[in-house]
Every structure is written in structure tokens, then in C-alpha cells.
Amino acid sequence: MQADFWHQRWANNQIGFHQSRANPYLQRHWSQLNIVPGTRVLVPLCGKSLDMNWLAEQGYPVLGVELSEKAVQEFFSEQGLEPFVSQQGAFKVYRAAEIEIWCGDFFSLCAEDIAGCHALYDRAAIIALPEAMRHRYVEHLNKVLPSECKGLLITLDYDQTQIDGPPFSVPDEEVQRLLSPDWALQVLETCDVLEESPKFLQVGVNSLNERVYRLGRS
After folding, report:
1. What confidence tens digit (pLDDT) does each residue in 161-171 have?
2. Residue 20 falls within a domain, yes or no?
3. pTM of this prediction?
């Protein structure tokens, strides 16, 4: 999957993945991670997610990473924030209040860039990537995130022979295989959201499970 795909999605406003409110799983489960307020949270492939606002309001500075500059600009505009813009290596960095978004290729991040991020929130990153890229994504997380990192991961699980992604199906077996060597995993919740997903209903998908994981760097 090339960068042009996502630039085109944003240019055409094909952003069905964007939620108009903070994610309920995030609100329900974040406190269970026992992350000290003030801890910076890495949000990969963040788009213009309102989850970043929610985290900041709870006292957690946010470092989002997003490929589309249109998404970044829309986030700050829609939140009524005037960002300070600077260049950090390969990234154009937008900062306002407790939120900064690094506009560029996630795989260009290095450990020094996110040395202060001891928490991770992934609602839209791993499920946005095809299978061939997911291993690379996890490898890169392991490479750049500091030790003793905690996080929340939200995935989708469905029969991908019935409809292709994105968002892609990432079943529990794959999550365990990708993450368990380096992370302790705990499933906090599994919920079938098929009735809330017309696109999947229309093609006859039988189930559409959202699964929430608590992560701890082992």
C-alpha cells in the first residue's frame, strides 16, 4: 500500500474510518493501564482523531504521526487550535497545547524522536495496513518505543474473503504472533459491531468483531 492511496482517500474525503466522537473503548479501558498522567502517548496513523483530544484532556500529552497533511491541518482547524509549525528531520511538526502531530512517514521515526513516549494508543494503525506491512509496523514499534511502555490496541476481526480492507482483519492469532514475543497481551473486550456497519452488512459478512487489548512491553 503506497502513500498515494491515503493521500487520495483524504483528498476525496473517503474517511469512513474517522469517528465523530472519542472512542468508547478508549474511554472505558484507558484507566486500567495505570499510566501516570503526564506520560506522553504515541498515536500512530492518527488522522484527525478526536481520541487525541480526549487523551490530552485526561492529562496525557499526545504525539500523533500522520502521513496526510490535509488530515493534520483539518484536526487543528476543527479544534480551533492555531498550531506552531516546524521541521524535525523528515517530518513537518504541528504543535498546539498538549498535542503535536508529526506529518510524514511513520517508518521514518527514530527512537530519539519519541524517547518521551511511554504509552501507545493504536485504534487505526495496524488495521490500516495490509498483512505484508503489519510485521514491519510492529518491528518498527519495537525498535523505537522505550522499554516499559504500556498501551491500548483495538483491532477488527472478520472474514476478509467476503470483503477486503482497509480496514483490514487482524485476528487474535495474528496479534498474538506479531506482538507476544515483545509484549504482554490481555484481551479486555470483544464486541460484534456488525449491526453498526452497513458496508459489511451489505456484502454479507457474518460477524465483525472489535477486540481491545491491553499491552505491556515485556
Report:
1. 998 889 999 99
2. yes
3. 0.93
